[in-house]
Structure formats: structure tokens, C-alpha cells
Records
---
Amino acid sequence: MSTNGTTLEGLGHGQRGVIRAVDAQCPQVQRLMTLGLVEGAEVVVAGSAIGGDPLELRLFGRGISLRREQARHFSVTPVGSGD
Amino acid sequence: MVGNPNSGKSTLFNRLTGLRQRVGNYPGVTVERHVGVLDVDGRRIELVDLPGTHALSAHSAEELIAIDVILGRMPGTAAPDGIVAVLDATNLYQGLYLVQQLLELSVPLVVALTMTDAAATAGITIDIDRLSARLGGVPVVPVVATTGRGIDTLRIAIAAIDKSEPPLIEPAWPALRDAATRLLDGTAEPAQRVAVERLLIDGPNASNQALLDGLGADATTRLRRAQDELFGLDPPLAAEARARYAWVRAVLADVQAHGARLAGWRTRVTDFVNRPLPGTLGLFLVMAIVFQAVFAWATPMMDLIDDSAAALGGRAIGLLGDNAFGSLVADGVIAGVGSVIVFLPQILILFLFIILLEDSGYLARAAYLMDRAMRSVGLSGQSIIPMISSFACAVPGIMATRVIPNRRDRIATILAAPFMTCSARLPVYALLIAAFVPDESVGLLNLQGLVLFGLYLFGIVMGVITAFVMRQTALRGPKPPFALMLPEFRTPNLRTVMIQLLGRVRVFLRRAGTVIFVVAVVIWALAYFPRSALVAAERDTAMAEAAMMFAGEELAAAEADIDNRAAARQLEQSFLGRAGKAVEPVFRPLGWDWRVSSAVIAGFPAREVVIAVLGTVYAVGDEADESTLTERLRNSRHADGSPVFTLPMVIGLLIFYACCLQCAATLAVIRRETNTWRWPVFAWTYMTVIGYTGALLANQLL
């Protein structure tokens, strides 16, 4: 599996990733960027609600939740093998 | 005082200003304005606690207000002389984004670094001096708002704020500053420049239209050209976020070190509750506990209040005599208002739980867990917080819908909110359940508690169905957005909880003291007048006859009976009785007699009044009787002798209550939040029709 196509949605539970690119056309994604989900930020997937949606991420130690369809807009480079 | 939501700002504000704070409103909107006073070294400082905000670009009505105040363009509020930036030590990454924007305002600034204890537990160390240096030399004061550590230092720093130089830092995005300066043709007053920077990023909107017009004739064209130059095809907010977070990361690398996270019971609980299944089950468990507690725990206190009120009423009659004034005091005021006060313990418990859940950070997690479920009815997880708040009172719940950015989604939530069993419905439910549902146990659970829970569930179901149907029809539209910060769990600060609880209780008592008092007296008057000489004469005759026929106990019983019937006839021909009788045909299929009809109609302005009215209507009929409302309801009879309160009728009545929008305050808030009379009228009509139909079906079919 090539890592080029991985988005936040594709990260598994406990996996770490660094945001590589953001498709920022939609205002919801821009809001998430204002909250810190920008290129270079490192996130950890902390969990999800029932059904895998929404996702819970840890961003610099802080919990943030977003829907899968929003997570798709963030391309990431996976880091290591989780915590 | 500016800071992120959940940064401990309110606790800090309470610490600094104590009870010397007032709550008002900003002009034209329903956002609350919290202002407090603190005295330091003989200087009097007015501290304005602004709504929590993440950045100077607004995503909600409250953030808009905060920004307008910060930029000094809020009518009625002067531009700030200084800013206390509340920075959460456990969340420097997001917090510094806002702080950096504030620094560029060149307004004297003090940073209050909160939650330093939580940061230590999380293994975070922060170099305060380095941080202060990176922030242009502003004082950074570590505080722990809950214990009070650092507060004195903070107070002194705030008092000295206007003696310090405004912060001097390099702009994170020089090109933005230059573009704004050019648009202003050189005038460089910082607040105005920042306002123009926001204009460049956010584009023209209601808040900055005036600013745009002030820039000159061809302002719009020049603005658009500047925007094209600055951003190109890149969305402005994205460009800003990238630039500023680059600065934030550089500062963090310099200032913060992240050690090992200290494991404790709190982190273990968080990790456990994070998992989807335990989390969701836990949520249901919490809700069930709350409802069981509300009904079961409050009972001893309620009985006490009930008995006291009855005794007090009897004493009043004894003191004042059996006349209009005595009746007014005993049957109008004491019985009426007392029958609502009796539910104060339950309301206290309910509000306490909701405040605890909110302050501990649990409600945000509930929104996250429920988002999927909410989406299936066309709402978003953020609707859960307004809905849950509506369990205490729909008025703040509907105001809380401001966190929902999508208008259709907001209105759907607003329409569903009144179905959530609010604390004003609770007295009616509790009364009817106590009177007509047996106090038995079904397994581990109390039957009465179970019925109450069932009613809550019914309200939720009706609300959800309403939202779903509305989203499918009149409010059809795209799915709403969702980005939620999940705060760490923390033990709520007891002082803050108490202050909030007292505030709520004060509002409830004020309602009881004023609206309900007035209505209780009015209803008493409508029930007492006109006095019928005929009824009085008949009573006297019957009394005389009974005295001849009976003696001792039999006589006492006969006299009581005569009294009751005379009182009933008196009531029937009073104004209230006539009104109730006039609408009786409408409500007869529901099994209601004219007394119930009168009480329900009188309750339309404010639900709690129904209890007051029932209390008054039944109390007026029995002079020397100290029995409680419950017994009187059970004994109530139709003209033909059949009981009024049969089980189907009671169920119907409960359903009517669950559905009816009997609250003028709620209608007013809906009007304010939707800006039109269409929605409140629609909500009222829709809910009344459903309530009527439900009660009808229950009475006829069961």
C-alpha cells in the first residue's frame, strides 16, 4: 500500500501521522485548520464512536473530533507504528 | 477577558470578581454579557468576560460578539484598555493561535496561564520566562483557578496593565499587515488595522460592512484586488491558519517540553470511556441514574415542604379568619405558590447533574458519541448539548443552539427542544405520578421512577421525530458540519458549580415569586368571585338540617360533605368555573372536567402555573381541610359521580403535558433566535395539536 494516498480517514486506531496536505475548499475544513489541523501538525488517532464515525484525534495532547468525510480532506504521512 | 472555551476562563473570572458580577445582554442579541469588578490597590477595574473563542474569525454568534468587543466596535461597550488572555497550559498549541492574534492588536496584555496543575500531571513543562519573551515581553502569570494559587500575582499584573508598554512582536504574516495598511491609506492605528485584516480574510459581512464603507468609494474593488494578491486561489482562512500555526510551532518548540504522561485514575477512565461501546453505554447509564435520582432522592424534602405548606395554610385561616383576605392568603398565595416551591428539591438535583456533566467535560463527549445517531435524523452531534440543556429548561437550551452553525439544523433542533421534558413539566408529572402510579418496585427499579423515565423517553422520541420530519420536508438541506473540541475530563470546581446552581435557583424562585404569584392570585380571584348568595344560603340551610339529624362524628362528616359540595357549586359559578365550562365540550373527549380544563388553560403562559391553579382550584373548595392536592385529585368526581382522574385520562393528560408548548418564555426565545414569528407560532400550533390528539387517543382507546 503506498503511503501517498493516505488520509486521516485511513489511519488506524492508535496510529500517528503528520499532515502533509489539506484540501481546504470547504468551510468546515477551514474551521478545522483554524483549530490547528494544518500541514506539519502531528496527530494520533485516539478512537471513534460506534460505527467508526466520528473520529477522535489527539492534536498536541488535545482531543478533537471530526467526521470521516472531513477527515478525507487531510492527507497524512503515517509515522512509526502507533503508541 | 478572552480565551478558548474550556480554558478555565469562567472559573478564573469567578475567582477574580467573586459575587461582584452582573449578567446582562449585548444590544440586540441574546448573548449574555458578564461583567465583574475587582479592586486592586485602590484602583477599580471592570472586567468583561467574553464568550470563549478560538480565533478572531467568527463561527458562531457568540464568537462574533467577542470579536466585536475586542475590536472596540460593540455599541455600548468601550474598546478594552487591556486584555487578560486566558491560556490553557495543557493546550498551548491552540491557545497561542488566539493569543498571537490578540498581541497584534497592540493592546496592553496580560497572559493568565491556567490549569498549570493539570499540565504538570500530563508531563508538560513550560518555560514561563521564555514564553513571556516570545510573546513580546507581556507578563505571563501561572494560576490554578480552582485553588487560587497565583491569583494575587494576577490581580497585581492586571492593575498594572495600563502602565506597561503594549506588546511588540513581529507579525506572523507581514504581507497581511501591509495589505491592510495600504487599504487604510497609511493610518496605522492597530485596532483598525486588525479590523481591516479580518475584513481581508473574512470578506464583507454584517459586522464589518460599516468598516468597508468607510474605506472610500471604490473600497469593494480595492478589497477584492488586495484579496486576490494576498491569497490567490488559496482560501484565506487556510492561508492564515498555516502562517500563524507555523509561528505557534516555533514558539512551542522553544518553550514547552513534553515528558511522560503521568498515569492516574483520570487517564484510565478517559481511555476506557473513549472506546465506542463502553462510552455509549456509559452515557445511557448516566442518564438513567440522573432520572432515578431526580425522582427518588428528592422525595423526603418534597414531603416536608408539602406538609409545611398545608400546615401554614391552615394556620393562616385560623389567624385571619374565614373571609376573602384569609382565603386569599391561605388558598391563593400559600397553596398556589407553595405547590410549585415543593418541587424545588427535584429541580435542584436535576440542575446540579446537568451543571456537573457540563463542567466535567462530559457533555462534549456525549455530543461526539451521539453524532452518528443524530445524523440519522438529519442533525449533528452538537444538537445534543442544546437538547440536554433543554431538560433543565428549554430557554437556555434553545439559546445554546447557537453553537450549531447550519441554520436549518438549528431550527430543527429549536423545534425539537421544547419536547425535552423541562423542569417545569416535572411538577405536573411528579404530581400525577405520585397520585396515580402505585409506589411499587419492578425488580430493582421503582415503578414511579420508571414511568417518569418513560415520559422523558417519550419526549425525546417526539423531539427526534419532529427534527427528522422537519429535516426531510420544510428544512431539507445539506448535512451540517461538525468539529468539536473534546476537553479532558476534570473534576468540576465546586464553587463554580454552586454559583451556577444558585443562579438557576434564583431564576426559578423569581418566576415562582413573580409570575406564578401574580397568576395564583388572579386565578384565586377568578375562582373566588363572584360570591353566590344562593350557594351560601343553601349551605346554611343544609348545615342547619344536618345539625338536627346528626351528632358527634357523623355530624362532622356531614358538615364536611356539605362544605365540599357548596364549595364546588361556588366554584362552578365563579368566573374561572364559567370559563372552564365554556371550553368543556372541547376537552370532554379527553376525559377532562371543567376544573382540569381551567387549570390547563391557565397554564398556557407558564407550565408551573398549572400546579398552582390546581392547588388553588381544589383548595378553595375545602376550607378546614389540610389534605394535600394528591388526595383531592383522587377524590375528584364528575357530575355523574364517576372519577375524573382515571388511568387513561391521566395518561392522556401526561401526554398532553409532554407535548404542549406552555411557556411564553420559550416562545419569546424561539422568536429571538429565529428572528421571525413564523417558527414560534408553528411550534406552538404543532405541539398543541399533537398534545390534544395524543390525549384524545389515550382517553378513548385505553
Note: Chain B is about 65% helix and 5% strand.
---
Amino acid sequence: MNKVGRSINWFGLSAGIITLIVLVISIYVPWWQLTIGQNLIKVNASPVNTNFGLFGAQFTIPLIWALNLISILTFTACGLVMLIYSLNPTKSYSKHLLVFSYKKPLYVLISFVAGLLAIVIIAGFLGMSIPLMGSATLTLPTQFISSGLSISALISGSFELPFYLAIVAAALCIAARIYHKNLGKIPKTAPETATLPTETPLTSVSG
Amino acid sequence: MDKVNIALTILSMVIIIGPLAGLAYVYRDNLVGLVVPPQIKSLVGGVDSVGTQSQPQFQTPQLVGQPQYNAQTGALTVSFNFTNPLTNEVSIDKLSAEVESEEGGVSLGHISINQPIQIAPGETSIINVSGILNQNAISQFEAQNPGVNGINISLANLNADVAGINVHMNQVNNVGQLQLPG
């Protein structure tokens, strides 16, 4: 009877589960939210579901919707493949599964942050200050409005729970990749040592 | 395990190419629609493709009638008409301005709303902005302009906080005339 436990990549298992949790939560809660005025303009941004609120009307941009769909499929595939890998990390095909899945949450995260930074930088060139976190007063540049008139609004941005969960998922995926090297070092003769006769001295096993 | 590798590579390609190809096919006759949704179009153009106004259109508050002025107390009320075009309630938290005479730009006083005003979706509301004018300034104006029976006023430094948006206007002319006691 084999008493040795089945090897599992626990980092990978956690990463797979959290990746799927991030996916589900992100459908309802944005990673980053921007609000202008009393919800007059609202941006709910996440790789999974990005939409805009303009004067009370909700809409999305078709191209962004397609990119969101790509992210949904990526997260789903990544999470499921990572789970399959984690439960069978020593199989011959496991390395392929790990390589397929461990980088994707990190890539999605980096792409999302890069996109936000690009928006902030572009807005800065137009003379508008958009806070990634916290509040600021946004003043419309004078070239956009008639003289003698100025328009400003309180603008606030904040990262939400799924964003931080995505960071955890990405970190766990990396940890799973690192831990995989240790799994590769597990001696395949381990079951045999467990079936040694009881009268065999322990020193002979360890030595 | 090349089969696993090939399968995962195909999966990656399908995940990326599938949605983009599908979207390109759906919007093949309207590629601009990929990045410009109808809501943005109607916001820019005012009307949508079937000719109906689909996005709310903000209009600046309109003056209603003549300013109400009580020469005995110096109380002045200027009324504005504002329509909330949104689907949610709008709050006017602040509305204030300096009252000036159009002739000579003499500062006559300050008017403001007493408390925030909530306007329901689609509702038009009259906003009364009031204050007490400086009697000395009125007397000074009368002394400088003998024989006039009214003061044409304008508003300066009008500040409004509508739904969290702060609007500042340097000058609003032709607000009306204050009738002076004969």
C-alpha cells in the first residue's frame, strides 16, 4: 500500500483558484474606478469588464468589449489549466501546462497598469490631471471652452479589490513556477524507502 | 508531449483571434463603430442615426423674467430655469454671484441660493438666487446717475456647483433692471 501522498503544487492550486475567483469578481467589480462629479462621468475599468457611465447612461466600446472577452477566456483557460497542472505537477506534460498558464495573469496585470498609465500620461499632455488613486480637481483646458468660462470638477480614482486579488494571483503563479523546480527534485525512489522493513535501522536510511 | 504543446498553442490563438475576428466580422460595414459607440456619436452629434435625441443635452440655466427687487429692504431675487436632462437626480449645491450695475460696473451686492436644490430626472425647476443689496452702493449709483429710474444689472463671478461640476462665469450680462423708487 502506497502511503506517500500525491504531489501537488499548492502554489499552483492556489493560483488557479484565485485566478478563477478574480475572473468572477471582476465581472461585477472593476479593477479601477474613476468618477467625475456626482457620478456624471464614471469609468469602470478592468481587463474583464470595462464600461463607461456618461450622464447616467452606461455603455461600452466594442473593441474594448472584444479585448475584455479575450481576457475572460485567457483567465478561464489559465485558471483551469493551472488547476489541472497543480494536481498533476510531475506528469510528463505538466511543464507545458505550467508554461501556458503561469505568465498570463502577470501579462494581463502589466497590460492593464500600462494602459492606465498611458491614459494618465495622455491626459497630462492635454493639461488634465487624472489621479490613479485619490482625488483631484480636474479643470477643463481653456482651449475646449469659451472665454470667460471655466469648468472644473472633483475627480477621484481608486483601485478596487479584484485588482489586488489579481496581483496575488500573478504572484502565486510565479511562485508555482519556482516551486515546480523543487517538485522536479523529488526522488522517485521515495515510495521504496517507505516500505523498508521495520527492523532496518533508521540511520541506514538517512545515511 | 508535443500534442499538449500544440493544443495549448492553438487554444492561445483561438482565444486571441476568435473575439477580434468575430468583432471585425460583425462591424465589417462600420469599422468606426468598433471604437465609437452610438452613445458617443449622439453626444457629439446630438442626434442618433434615426434622428432622435438619445443623449441628454445640458443647457445653461436660463433667466426667468425680471429680477425681483424690494427697494425698502434691498432684497433681490434673480430666477433661473434649469432642466435636468439626466436619468438620475441632479443636485445644485452652490450658486452665487456678485451683482453689478451695467453702467459703471458698480458692485451692488451678493446673491446666492439658501440651500442645495435637488432636481429630479427630466424635471424643470425654477432656481431663486437671492440676497440683500448694499443700500449705500444703490445710493451712490443714484447720485452718480441722477434722474434714472432703474439700474440695469449684470452678474459677475457666477459660481455654480451642479452635480459636482463647478462652473465659473466671469460675466452674465443683461440680467434685467432694478426699479428704483421714484
Note: The interface with chain A takes residues 1, 4-5, 8, 11-12, 15-16, 18-20, 22-23, 26-27, 33-40, 43, 55-56, 58, 85-88, 90-91, 121, 163-171 of chain B (CB under 8 Å).
